[in-house]
């Protein structure tokens, strides 16, 4: 789809919001974990290279938006029951920058209530889940204005992905079930820098029920935000080689995902995780987000794989926590390994058992 074909961009409800228009909508949306990483952006939240992720299930945001006709746009944001102006400001900034797509907001007051199912102290970024959940709510409000048949939960996921991307890059991938690809690649027809597409129909069954056990190595806020990290790619001397390699990894990973080739999957996934952190280490200024226990876990995982031939691998987000990825059929063995050998490296022995999930879902 070319930008000119994204007809839904020009289909915003521009009419008069009816008197008495009020109510609430609710959506939940999961976090996602990238295998091929998005690291470096250009223009208006466009990726420097395509990325692929698993959609998670247990780590998600649940958002309710109360709406009411008003004389002008009003907005309040509550996080886990308390007003949270800092996070609210991020959503408001996104809305103000994109008001042309949501002109009806000029006639509405919104009160947003959001919560995450994962603990605050886990260090898991919530912008992908929370921004995509909010965008789904916004789109449902619009669909209620457009007509009574809409608002049934069948929202246009491509449009949702586009707006989620504008709110927070990787959020573009969270709306789809199983796995998503964000970024244009010749290896996948219909792929785009503007929004993510679903890979659900191009997956070997083994990947549709994959597990992700998230080992919480450190729950503190990161010393360098993802935003700053993306920006530092601009002066990074390795950036061109990185983008070329990411493109190649996308091609090979897409093939492996289709055929169920776990060796290639493991090889690319671990290399991508280490490359992401290597890029941070050779940024200027350089920085390190891994902790000693991150490396201890990586070491143990590789030893366990060599000794037991279990198809278990790790990936990392922009932080010290380790995501362990493995087929559902290996769950018992891997969970025993986590409890016996790895949880000791986690804050309060804390880890989260997650798995591939179904994307955004309507709450009410
Ligand atoms: O969506 P952002 O701006 O938080 O960036 C996400 C970057 C990584 O999580 C490190 C990689 C990715 O593709 O999700």
Question: How would you portray this structure in words?
Answer:
This protein is an alpha+beta fold and 364 residues long. Helix content is 34%, strand content 23%. The chain has 9 helices and 14 strands. It has helices at residues 85-97, 127-146, 157-167, 205-208, 226-232, 239-259, 262-281, 292-308, 331-342, and strands spanning 22-36, 41-42, 46-47, 51-69, 74-79, 82-83, 108-116, 179-182, 196-198, 211-215, 313-316, 322-326, 351-355, 361-362. Strands 1, 4, 5, 6, 7, 8, 9 and 14 form an 8-stranded mixed sheet that branches. The protein has a 4-stranded antiparallel sheet with strand order 11-12-10-13. Strands 2-3 form a two-stranded antiparallel ribbon. The longest helix has 21 residues, at 239-259. The mean pLDDT is 95. Bound molecules: (3R)-3-hydroxy-3-methyl-5-(phosphonooxy)pentanoic acid. (3R)-3-hydroxy-3-methyl-5-(phosphonooxy)pentanoic acid (PMV) binds at residues 34, 37-39, 51, 125, 127, 168-170, 226, 230, 276, 317-318.
- Which shape, going by the Cα principal axes? globular
Question: Which strand-content bin applies to the residues?
Answer: 15-25%
Q: DSSP helix count?
A: 9
Q: What is the averaged pLDDT score?
A: 95
Total beta-strand segments: 14
Compute the CA-based radius of gyration: 20 Å
The computed structural class is: alpha+beta
Explain briefly what this protein structure is.
The protein has helices at 85-97, 127-146, 157-167, 205-208, 226-232, 239-259, 262-281, 292-308, 331-342; strands at 22-36, 41-42, 46-47, 51-69, 74-79, 82-83, 108-116, 179-182, 196-198, 211-215, 313-316, 322-326, 351-355, 361-362. The chain is an alpha+beta fold and 364 residues long.
């Amino acid at each position: 789809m070319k930008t000119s074909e994204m007809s839904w961009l020009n289909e915003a409800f521009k009419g008069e919001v009816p008197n008495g228009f009020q109510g609430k909508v609710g959506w939940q949306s999961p976090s996602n974990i990238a295998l091929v990483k998005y690291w470096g952006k250009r223009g208006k939240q466009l990726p420097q290279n395509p990325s692929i992720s698993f959609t998670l299930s247990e780590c998600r945001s649940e958002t309710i938006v109360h709406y009411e006709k008003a004389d002008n746009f009003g907005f309040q944001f509550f996080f886990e029951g308390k007003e949270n102006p800092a996070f609210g400001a991020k959503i408001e900034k996104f809305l103000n920058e994109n008001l042309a797509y949501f002109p009806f907001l000029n006639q509405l007051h919104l009160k947003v209530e959001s919560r995450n199912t994962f603990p605050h102290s886990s260090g898991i970024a919530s912008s992908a889940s929370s921004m995509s959940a909010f965008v789904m709510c916004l789109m449902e409000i619009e669909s209620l204005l457009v007509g009574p048949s809409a608002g049934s939960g069948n929202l246009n996921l491509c449009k949702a992905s586009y707006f989620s991307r504008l709110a927070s890059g990787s959020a573009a991938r969270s709306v789809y079930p199983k796995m998503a690809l964000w970024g244009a690649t010749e290896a996948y027809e219909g792929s785009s820098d503007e929004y993510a597409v679903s890979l659900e129909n191009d997956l070997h069954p083994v990947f549709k029920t994959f597990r992700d056990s998230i080992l919480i190595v450190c729950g503190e806020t990161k010393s360098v935000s993802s935003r700053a990290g993306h920006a530092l790619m601009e002066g990074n001397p390795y950036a061109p080689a990185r983008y070329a390699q990411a493109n190649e990894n996308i091609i090979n990973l897409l093939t492996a995902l289709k055929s169920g080739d776990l060796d290639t999957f493991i090889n690319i996934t671990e290399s991508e995780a280490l490359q992401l952190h290597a890029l941070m280490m050779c940024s200027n200024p350089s920085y390190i987000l891994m902790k000693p226990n991150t490396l201890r876990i990586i070491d143990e995982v590789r030893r366990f794989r060599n000794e037991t031939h279990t198809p278990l691998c790790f990936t990392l987000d922009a932080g010290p926590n380790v995501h362990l990825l493995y087929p559902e059929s290996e769950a018992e063995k891997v969970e025993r390994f986590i409890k016996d050998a790895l949880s000791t490296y986690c804050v309060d022995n804390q880890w989260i058992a997650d798995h591939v999930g179904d994307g955004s879902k309507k709450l009410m």
